[in-house]
Amino acid sequence: MNAHIITIGDEILIGQTLNTNAAYIGSRLIELSIDIKKTSVVGDNEQQILNEFKECFNENDLVIVTGGLGPTHDDITRNCIVKFFNTALVLNEDVLKDVKSIFSKRGRQVTKLNEDQALVPKNAKVIRNKLGTAPGVWIEKDNKIFVVMPGVPFEMQEMMSSYVMPNLKEKLGEPEFVTTRLVLQTTGIPESFLFERLGNIDELLNGAEMAFLPSQFGVKLRITVKDKTTEAANNRLTEIEQKIRNKVGRFVYAQGEETLEEVVGRLLKERELSIAVAESCTGGNIANLLTNISGSSDYFERGVVSYSNGSKVEMLQVDEDIIQKYGAVSPEVAEQMSKGIKSISGTDLGLSITGILGPTGATPGKPIGLVYISICDINSCIIRKFLFGEDRLLNKQRATQAALDMIRKHILGIQQDD
Amino acid sequence: MNAHIITIGDEILIGQTLNTNAAYIGSRLIELSIDIKKTSVVGDNEQQILNEFKECFNENDLVIVTGGLGPTHDDITRNCIVKFFNTALVLNEDVLKDVKSIFSKRGRQVTKLNEDQALVPKNAKVIRNKLGTAPGVWIEKDNKIFVVMPGVPFEMQEMMSSYVMPNLKEKLGEPEFVTTRLVLQTTGIPESFLFERLGNIDELLNGAEMAFLPSQFGVKLRITVKDKTTEAANNRLTEIEQKIRNKVGRFVYAQGEETLEEVVGRLLKERELSIAVAESCTGGNIANLLTNISGSSDYFERGVVSYSNGSKVEMLQVDEDIIQKYGAVSPEVAEQMSKGIKSISGTDLGLSITGILGPTGATPGKPIGLVYISICDINSCIIRKFLFGEDRLLNKQRATQAALDMIRKHILGIQQDD
Fold first, then answer.
1. Is residue B328 classed as helix, strand or coil in its secondary structure?
2. C-beta of residue B283 within 8 angstroms of C-beta of residue A292
3. Strand-pair partners of B126
4. Taking phi first (over 0 means left), then psi (-120 to 50 degrees means alpha), and beta for anything else, what does residue B361 get?
5. Is this prediction's ipTM beyond 0.85?
6. Domain B178-255 has what CATH class?
7. Between chains, do A307 and B295 touch, taking CB under 8 Å as contact?
8. Which of residues 332 through 371 in chain A touch B, CB cutoff 8 A?
């Protein structure tokens, strides 16, 4: 089965909104080994939408469309469906009930605009919306499937999980061949160095495929194997993974899509370690990521965003003299911050970070991008120096990632520097 | 001039990487009133890339391609350019110099793989890469323009700003008609309520266009006016803006793409107010966003992520009895937290937040999504209660946005609740 994903909306075309929907749908379709040929974005323009429907429905077994189903005047997708399939709108009582129930839960009155969301194309199967008011539709014609869902990401995602995926699975039946994929996420090593450390790629892969996906968080390696059975494919994947880990295992922080903060959270939980963090330049982002994880209150005790020098002295027991002598961005202050946060919190680990993220703040000998990170346990403290780039927000993300990776390496007893 | 944006990469197609590049390029092209017809994503497959080049170059005046120019084996875009334009690769000495200089700055050796990045298609103009090793190319043929840039976002963005935009501007000359756009960002009011408060949309717009763009951060209104002169278009925009502000002005936090944290930062700076924040459920995200802004150290004094009850008592002077009596998620604790953080920091404003973001932690009478936010100044404290949804990360973003908007309304003296 091959597929095309269409996203509708001027806001995507002109870059006001990121196309997270196509990404999400893509990631789900490959779970079913569906071959995604292309994704496209068209604006809120009837003729362009109809052209795109036609071209994509001609060339693919499955077309998935999102966007333009809302209640306001600029939502024209439903009318395009009616025209494209030459059908009409009918009132769906179940959807009307859903709409009324959502508004009553929020303590708001249902308006005519909202009630109209219960009008759906005749002959379409309705995909009910558990999180919003616009329903989705599933249409089958000429042995092909045409699915339309609202553009609000969490509403669409719920529909994919509870309706579209199970129904596609049923349609597909048993697969002829199996594609398995493995993602290894690395951090702390540039793409070209990773490539070279891996040696002869063809020999390593032996017919499999591998992609290098660099970003500010590190380089993802995506390995793809096709084989006749899941077992055969998995065996080959495992063999390749082992070879990669033998060469660059220290830099691999996750297998699959687990984030570094999830890995760190899992490790802290498994080893029953608690942590507290003192952040200067990252301004709370390390605490923010650690607390994104449900259950993080089991190991994350507190955070301090000690942006001013006064707050470093008052809250983290940093010596004012040390700040005067070495500056707030120094290994000495980093060490005192990590010792201080550990001591006041009574945690097993204390992490600290201080640096200059730019664009201002550089001083002689201390360029933009200079960051010190320190981690302390009951026995000792280590301090690492990093030199990132010029961009404030990229630096914040890189520094946060580096700090999380220091925690990971510390817990696992892995050598810190490359 | 109409345009098509092509993004190359399996990682985009299968949703491992968000297509931020198409969004960025789209946002830049509309600055020049270039009409973006469509954007598409194709995988790392020579035949599909060549087909897409052909179709898009036939139908558009401008094609912009990103991705697949890196140094590793899965980067095949450069060879596709060579085939499509029936040309060859030649060594470019300037690029070779750039590559060598980048590696020497980072204290790393240049490898053969990196040196090969200096091979560029003959007859193409080279777009030098100031932040990485893969150069871009600009090709003109049959009065059309074909631009290819690397997929690493910050490298591509730099090339757009320093080369592509100025060159496109020169090509375009004086425009025949002018399109002006205005974005008003609202928060704290659902899409359908905003729509209804605006009344008769056709009357309001009088020939202009308006789109509603909802997300967890609020609803953006995008108004588009076409007219013969910039002045005429701007006058009509101003008139519409005024009408909208008269009806829902309280919910409008920004004009254009300014983020709420930028707005709040600007207001704090203008009024010379300092702030400190005490976060429980948002885990540092409010501090994180406030410190994303360069210069935030002028007004952001410190943050405390008081995740444990102990940290609320020890760091924020919250009464242990009050936590016992009312629970950590209560208006009473929120108020004490905001008073506490203001008092220990000596700032003009103290903000606090406590809530249950889920998926666990609900108790009888305290559902998931319940959040209290409090803001104190020298005179008084206000506390607001919010009820968000079920999803932890969405709740974190919504709660953060609500807290930032409370600061905004407080500084501007705007009524807090709707």
1. coil
2. yes
3. B137
4. left
5. no
6. alpha beta
7. no
8. 344-345, 358-360
CA-to-CA separations, B27 to A12, B4, B57, B257, B289, in angstroms, rounded: 9, 13, 21, 11, 23
8 Å CB contact between A47 and A35: no
pLDDT value for B385: 96
- Looking at the partner chain, which of B11, B190, B282 has a beta carbon nearest the beta carbon of A222? B11
Nearest to B72 by CA among A23, A180, A188, A209: A209
Strand ordering across the sheet containing B209-215: B209-215, B218-227, B178-186, B252-255
pLDDT-based confidence at residue B418 (cuts at 50, 70, 90): low
Q: Where are the domains of chain B?
A: 2-172, 178-255, 260-412
* Domains B2-172 and B178-255 in one fold: no
Fold category of A2-172 in CATH: Molybdenum Cofactor Biosythetic Enzyme; Chain A (3.40.980)
Residues of A in contact with B359 (CB under 8 A): 294
* Residue contact A11–B311, C-beta within 8 A: no
Read off the pLDDT of residues A294-309 as tens digits, 9 standing for 90 and up.
999 999 999 999 999 9
| B155 interfacial to chain A (CB closer than 8 Å) | no
Residue with tokens 């209104």: B221
Is the pTM above the cut of 0.90? no
Instruction: Tell me the per-residue pLDDT of B68-127, one tens digit each, with 9 for 90 and over.
Output: 998 877 789 999 999 999 999 999 999 999 988 877 776 777 888 888 899 999 989 999
Of the candidates B360, B365, B362, B340, the one whose C-alpha atom is nearest the C-alpha of residue B350 is B340
Cis peptide before B359 (omega within 30 of 0): yes
The string of pLDDT tens digits covering residues B189-228 is 988 889 999 999 999 999 998 988 888 899 999 999 989 8
Domain with residues A260-412, CATH architecture: Alpha-Beta Complex (3.90)
Whether the CB of A131 is below 8 Å from some CB of chain B: the reply is: yes
